[in-house]
Design brief:
alpha+beta, Immunoglobulin-like, Rossmann fold, 4-stranded antiparallel β-sheet, about 30% helix
């Protein structure tokens, strides 16, 4: 029997018997109810909480999550029950349960670890709290709507271990014509000429040689590379389509990491779904550097397959702004004439095209190679073979 029903019973008995004892008991019960409600309201206003969690991690990395609870009031909080919901792929069991008490002004830190082996986009939470009085006369549930998102990046393998041929046309190509010079590739010094700018003077070398000298860099053409990944169920066949798509995604991530190491500009075009932005066929524009690589890996880590969709229309739009000599690496489960026709069209626009097709037969590889397009296949284990 709860206090509300007990109060009604005591009131009826006190009125019927006209007993002072039952009136006193009624006053005590009503007073306890009021005190409990006031205490619970004060506890709810005094209790604050926050969660600290990394936004992304690489596979196999252990992440520490911190939940801070603080009593900002002058009265103690008898107990707080905490319940955190977690994805099963990150924590076993998929929840965190704790019960603590907080003194006046006390702050408690609850920590736990997440361990992600598989790439993906995971939602952490919601965080549920419940508090009550010391006598157990009342409870107040609290639900935090603040969810945290965690992205596990895809696996990145060195190309030498992955098996990609070194002849793929990406990276920096040496040029006999000095289209522009790469400051990251020094080639010594030479005497100063009137056409040289003052910025190119190597002052230390000039002071040592006693004459003006300018820095030399190797001539190069920096090729822009677009990695296009098909990631819809329609574009992959077979019973093991999901595993094949994951292997293709790992290949794309490995190529991007290699391009970042070469300091080359690259972009990404995919035909899947990004749950973080709720967008289909997401594109990462051309850029370079480690920060840009993390952005691209974040997209690949969050990527989810769609049931239907085609990569070729997205590639057509994404390559519209690429310059002559740029490279397009298409990783797909498609074969046949539509894919070849798109590749030949890009070739006529001056783009280098490389096709990486999953589980392609020798005859399917021979067709694009007959037209001068580099073509390779990924077997079921994900290792490219010729």
């Amino acid at each position: 029997m709860n206090l509300n029903r007990l109060s009604i019973v005591l009131l009826l008995v006190a009125i019927a018997l006209r007993s002072d004892l039952f009136f006193v008991l009624l006053y005590i019960v009503v007073g306890l109810q009021l005190a409990t409600r006031l205490w619970l309201s004060y506890q709810v206003r005094s209790l604050s909480w926050s969660r600290t969690i990394p936004q992304a991690a690489f596979p196999g990395e252990r992440l520490q999550v911190e939940i801070a609870l603080q009593n900002r009031g002058l009265l103690p909080i008898a107990w707080v029950a905490l319940h955190e919901s977690l994805p099963p792929a990150l924590h076993t069991p998929p929840m965190i349960r704790e019960v603590i008490s907080l003194g006046p002004g006390e702050r408690r830190l609850i920590t736990y670890e997440l361990f992600g082996q598989r790439r993906g986009y995971y939602q952490i939470g919601p965080l549920s709290l419940q508090t009550g009085d010391v006598l157990g006369l009342g409870e107040r549930p609290l639900v935090s709507d603040q969810r945290a998102a965690l992205t596990i990046y895809p696996h990145v393998l060195p190309l030498a271990d992955f098996g990609l041929p070194a002849s793929l046309p990406y990276g920096t190509l040496a040029s006999s014509r000095r289209l522009f010079e790469d400051p990251a590739r020094p080639a010594g010094v030479r005497p100063y000429q009137p056409a040289d700018g003052v910025r190119r003077i190597d002052w230390k070398a000039s002071a040592h040689a006693g004459q003006p000298l300018v820095r030399r860099q190797q001539p190069a053409i920096a090729l822009e590379t677009l990695v296009a990944l098909a990631f819809t169920r329609e574009e992959y066949d077979g019973r093991f389509a999901y595993d094949t798509m994951e292997h293709a995604l790992t290949a794309a991530a490995s190529i991007l990491a290699h391009l970042a190491d070469l300091r080359q500009p690259f972009g990404v075009c995919v035909s899947g779904f990004d749950p973080a932005t709720s967008r289909h066929a997401t594109v990462v524009p051309l850029g370079h550097g480690r920060a840009h690589l993390i952005t691209a890996l974040g997209l690949l880590g969050r990527l989810e397959p769609l049931k239907e969709g085609q990569l070729l229309p997205e590639v057509r739009r994404a390559t519209a702004g690429l310059g002559w000599g740029s490279t397009v690496v298409m990783i797909t489960g498609q074969r046949g004439e539509p894919l070849l026709a798109e590749a030949l069209g890009m070739r006529r626009r001056g783009l280098n095209v490389t096709l990486i097709m999953t589980e392609a037969t020798p005859d399917e590889l021979a067709l694009p190679r007959r037209h001068g397009i580099a073509a390779f296949t990924l077997n079921r284990e994900g290792r490219p073979i010729e």
